[in-house]
Amino acid sequence: MSATASSSTHSRPVARPEAKPGRTVRFRVKRCDGPGKPVRWETFAVKPEPGANIISCLQQIAASPVTVDGQKTTPVAWDSGCLEEVCGACTMVINGKTRQSCSCLIDEYAPNEGDEITLEPMSKFPVVRDLWVDRARLFDALKRVKAWVPIDGTYSLGAGPRESAEKSESRYVMSTCMSCGCCLEACPQYQLEENPDKWPASFIGAHAMNQARLFNEHATGAVLKGARLDTLMGEGGVNDCGNAQNCVQVCPKHIPLTESIATIGRSVTIHAIAKWFRG
Amino acid sequence: MPSFIEKNHFLLRRLHSLTGIVPIGVFLIAHLLTNSSIIWGGGALREGFDGAPFKDRGVAYFQEEVAWINTQVPHLLLIEVTLWVSLAFHAILGVYYARSGSANTDRYPYQGNWRYRVQRLSGYLGFLFIFYHVATLRWGWTFLIPGGTEWSFRYSASTLAAALHGSTTGLTTVGVVVSLFYFAGVSLLVFHFANGLWTAAITWGLTISKAAQRRWGYVCAGLGAALMLMAWMSLFGALAVKHDDARRIESQLHHKAAGLAPKAAEIADTN
């Protein structure tokens, strides 16, 4: 039994194998020197410290970048920020599944001597280098759905409308999105698109629909609801969702993304009918 | 210049969803209900075949249902054309939409993801099946049914059995291939409809919460199971029918009708 207590948001298995101290873990890493450069695989051997995560192992590799074949190579590049699973920067594909590397504990993933962990960059965003990707499209999508509360202006707008505790509580989980990109990486409808001119017509993704819902349900944010729905009604919007529902399975924040998509679906249905009759 | 598809994106997407339910889905329910009567019709109360074996009464019931549809239902051609146009629209747009995705069940083998994948696969194969089914049994493209005879609503069970058996005398190798294609085709299409009904409720925004989606899922699964049962009853019922037995029963019905209704008698006379 591990000493780590499972938190309320993360349901990790309680009984898991005891990690062998002093073991060697192999890291198979998908590498790329930069945009347009060829892809290659390299394997590194690391002796993880107790409680190590992917990032600390990548730091060990960076300190001595030699592959298992004894070949000297460049340090593996990665992106990271908070190291506590709230910024989303260190998201990568670990053993074939998308998740944050900072919260990925080696003791769970590779408890035995010789266990191997595969690291790949997310496939739906352009690679900057190695495991580091450019998530610009993800943030562009948030701009397109105006994922904010409009309060800027030249004069004071005064106090906003009262928010009930119930409503703000229901919105809270939606607001925990850290724009990590897991929902997009796992989505079969979301494809890699490097040309920004093609972003508006390409599927926008679950994260943007969840943020649109979050601000549509905010009393002040709701003034932009029509503009948000106009965007989500068109090409690349909510109708392009294929309902595979992988997004909700991989969301590290357990945001009910599929409920947000259905809510936007309902809003868009009403919006479209209203527009058709009203003009 | 945005293309026609881009400009009418919302309308086309929602029409794609709607046509899957009305008219295609509604027709599917009626169609499978009629076809499965080749089995359950044996237990239904209908005059004239009181002493006959269960199987014969099923054939008689089915024949009377099919004859009724083809002689009594008003605007049958209009209904058929509406179905063909809806099917073509649903299929062409469906292929166009399906091509925008890329399956990833190898990495994310969740049940929902598998349904997403099978939904697209069943769309492709299902459309091929529908085309074959309609071309052979409705448009009379007999060169596509080796050993079978042209389907006729006056001899609905016997000509259907011949088409599935690959001969009028019994099951042939070609018949096995055709029947397996029918089994795959109808099973995939029933899944496609049941799963499509489930996702349509999300698309239109009817089911929102996880619990509501689960509840609606039970309804769709129940409907799907019932339709699957009917589809298999139709296929195995038709396969169990012997061509000559069915033809004898159909002829008896024609003679019976000749003494009762002038319109049906007219049909019987032309035989």
Task: Please explain how this structure is put together.
The complex is a heterodimer of chains A (279) and B (271). With 279 residues, chain A is an alpha+beta fold. Chain A is built from nine helices and seven strands, in the order E-E-H-E-E-H-E-E-E-H-H-H-H-H-H-H. In chain A, strand 6 (127-129) and strand 7 (132-133) form a beta hairpin. Chain B has 271 residues and is mainly alpha-helical. Chain B has one domain: 3 helical TM bundles of succinate and fumarate reductases (Up-down Bundle). Chain B is 74% helix and 0% strand. Chain B has ten helices and no strands. Chain B has helices at 4-7, 9-40, 54-72, 76-98, 111-137, 156-165, 173-203, 210-240, 243-258, 262-269. In chain B, helix 2 (9-40) packs across helix 7 (173-203) and helix 7 (173-203) runs antiparallel to helix 8 (210-240). Residues 264-269 of chain B have low confidence and may be disordered. Chain A binds chain B through residues 96-97, 186, 188-189, 191, 201, 203, 233-235, 237, 239-246, 249-250, 256, 258-259, 261-270, 272, and chain B through 6, 9-10, 13-14, 97, 100-104, 107-108, 110, 112-113, 115-117, 199, 202-210, 213.
Mean pLDDT of chain B: 92
Mean pLDDT across all amino acids of chain A: 94
CATH class of the largest domain in chain A: Mainly Alpha
Give the biggest beta sheet of chain A: 5 strands, mixed
CATH class of chain B: Mainly Alpha
Strands in their spatial order, largest beta sheet of chain A: 2-1-5-3-4
Output the radius of gyration of chain A: 22 Å
Tally of DSSP β-strands of chain A: 7
User: What structural category arises from helix and sheet content of chain B?
Assistant: mainly alpha
Low-confidence stretches of chain B: 264-269
Fold-level CATH name of the largest domain in chain A: Fumarate Reductase Iron-sulfur Protein, Chain B, domain 2
Uncertain stretches of 5 or more adjacent residues of chain A = 1-9
- H/I helix tally of chain A: 9
Distance between the termini of chain B: 59 Å
The helix-and-strand class of chain A reads alpha+beta
Quick one: which chains have the greatest interface? A-B, 36 and 30 residues
* Oligomer status: heterodimer
- Give the SSE string of chain B: HHHHHHHHHH
